[in-house]
Amino acid sequence: ALVGRHGGNYDVDVELKSPSGKILYQVTRKQYDQVEKTAEEDGVYQFCFSNEFSTFTHKVIYIGTSETRLE
């Protein structure tokens, strides 16, 4: 879950990339969003956040992740 808690209109861009660089999720100007993805590759996944639409307003972002291993 992505939750913008403080600042401006809470307009934040989010991008999630796989270890190979594939964009798995992308959204612009969101205050709150929730997405569920299953890791299909081993490696490091990247969350990228942007405050481009409101650069003069500080933002505080909370994210939650969970890990479930399938055997």
Please name the defining characteristics of this protein.
71 residues; mainly beta; elongated; disordered N terminus
Q: Can you give a write-up of this model?
A:
With 71 residues, the chain is mostly beta strands. Helix content is 0%, strand content 42%. It has no helices and six strands. It has strands at residues 2-6, 12-17, 23-30, 32-33, 46-50, 60-63. A hairpin with a 5-residue loop joins strand 2 and strand 3. The two termini are 25 Å apart.
List the helices and strands and how they pair.
Layout: E1 2-6, E2 12-17, E3 23-30, E4 32-33, E5 46-50, E6 60-63
Antiparallel strand pairs: 1-4, 1-6, 2-3, 2-5
C-alpha termini separation: 25 Å
Q: Which spans have pLDDT < 50 for at least 5 consecutive residues? A: 1-6
Q: Any idea what the radius of gyration is?
A: 13 Å
The overall pLDDT, averaged over residues, is: 78
Q: How are strands sequenced across the largest beta sheet?
A: 4-1-6
Number of strands: 6
Shape: elongated
As a percent range, the share of helical residues equals: under 10%
Approximate strand percentage: 35-45%
Q: Largest sheet, described in full?
A: 3 strands, antiparallel
The sequence of SSEs as H and E is: EEEEEE
Annotation field: number of helices: 0
Which structural category do the helix and sheet elements fall into? mainly beta
